[in-house]
Specification:
alpha/beta, 3-stranded antiparallel β-sheet, binds pyridoxal-5'-phosphate
């Protein structure tokens, strides 16, 4: 049977060129970058070369890059590390990733003034809505570049202008856009930005946090003086090499990658609409907001019959060889409907019957067509079982 992976927003396969770059560091050059001997100095040179490369790719300075263990740590480090006692207020959106929302909750529980705004119907927050929520206590705003469940893009320059006008910092989780959209921190206007290598064909367990030079920052992971005292712990040298190589390839190949994904996304959207017609509701805001090129998120509302069981839908697709998520990979497996879809105003039954397809560089037109065909078959079967006699 065909095995078709359409869950690239959850993670991507390692690019063989990235593995090739990592290999010598995983085998021969295993020194600790903090050691003073030759092996350590060699590792240090490698880490600093990667820092320069990553900084250049983001339009940043090397000293502004902190290597981390991934997107979750980068988000935690930003939300805790950029807090100041003078301005302890934090503003974010209900459609953010758990790596931001759970920290916002913890900061609120500790007494900080935290505002979690409802996003607009597309999942993005309008700069005017943000501006209205900021006050003199707001020190930090955290809003993601692309939503990982529905793909909506934020207007970061607009949001950054609103933050600047009130003296607040802007952090963005760019975990879903690295390698797909230009990430020049100056053009975006952000003060901090999170990346995770495994979302752009790099290894798991390594990420980066950009923090604008001169911004007060308290380390989140405390320990040794690594990363200029901003993140304790022995550097993951092979991971850092993989992250830098994967980001360089992604930036180099950005135009063909985007063209490939946009064409597949348009094809899949068209075919899904032909196959499912008015049975489907788009959660990805096609035509109404800017979107990332790799995500298509749809729900199958009850349509007069009993609601479809979302988990069964995913399991049936898996049996057909099509691997997808219901939303963020962290929440699938649990029966709770996605917090993002609820924030977008979907009712619980609709939000529960959701499929997120996310496309990658290895996805082909034939893959997309196969997945649409299998989804239509599974939905037809599940509806017949759920409501015998009712043909839908
Ligand atoms: N932020 C977003 C938007 C994500 O999609 C993810 C991964 O699911 C993360 C953060 C967490 O990244 P990591 O898996 O590297 O911890």
């Amino acid at each position: 049977m065909r095995r078709l992976y359409l869950d690239h927003a959850a993670t991507t396969p390692l690019d063989p060129r990235v593995l090739e770059a990592m290999h010598p560091v995983l085998t021969a050059h295993y020194g600790n970058a903090s050691s003073v001997h030759a092996a350590g100095r060699q590792a240090r040179v490698t880490v600093e070369a990667c820092r320069e490369q990553v900084a250049a790719l983001l339009g940043a300075e090397p000293a502004e890059i902190v290597f981390t263990s991934g997107g979750t740590e980068s988000d935690n480090a930003a939300l805790y590390g950029l807090r100041t006692p003078e301005r302890p207020g934090l503003v974010t959106s209900a459609a953010e990733h758990e790596a931001v929302l759970r920290v916002a909750e913890a900061r609120a529980a500790a007494g900080d003034p935290v505002v979690v705004l409802a996003p607009g119907p597309t999942g993005a927050l309008a700069p005017a809505a943000l501006a209205a929520a900021l006050d003199d206590a707001t020190g930090l705003v955290s809003l993601m570049h692309a939503n990982n469940e529905v793909g909506t893009l934020s207007d970061l320059p607009g949001l950054a202008a609103a933050c600047r006008a009130r003296g607040a910092l802007l952090h963005t989780d760019a975990v879903q856009t690295a390698g797909l959209l230009p990430l020049d921190v100056g053009a975006l206007g952000v003060d901090a930005l999170s990346l995770s290598a495994h979302k752009f064909y790099g290894p798991k367990g390594v990420g980066a946090l950009y923090v604008r030079g001169g911004t007060p920052f308290t380390p989140f992971v405390r320990g040794g003086a690594q990363e200029r005292g901003r993140r304790g712990g022995t550097e993951n040298v092979a991971g850092i090499v993989g992250l830098a190589r994967a980001l360089a390839l992604a930036v180099d190949e950005a135009a063909p990658r985007r063209a490939h994904l946009e064409a597949l996304q348009a094809r899949m959207r068209r075919h899904l609409e032909e196959a499912l017609g008015d049975l489907l509701v788009w959660n990805t805001p096609f035509g109404t907001a800017p979107i990332a090129p790799h995500i298509l998120n749809l729900s199958l509302p009850p349509a007069g019959g009993p609601p479809l069981d979302g988990e069964m839908l995913l399991l049936n697709l898996d049996l057909e060889g099509v691997m997808v998520s219901a939303g963020s990979a962290c929440t699938s497996g649990a029966l709770e409907p996605s917090h993002v879809l609820l924030a977008l105003g979907r009712d619980r039954a609709t939000a529960a019957a959701t499929v997120r397809f996310s496309l990658g560089m290895d996805t082909t037109e034939a893959d997309v067509d196969y997945a649409v065909d299998r989804l239509a078959a599974v939905v037809g079967r599940m509806r017949r079982v759920a409501a015998p006699g009712q043909v839908r």
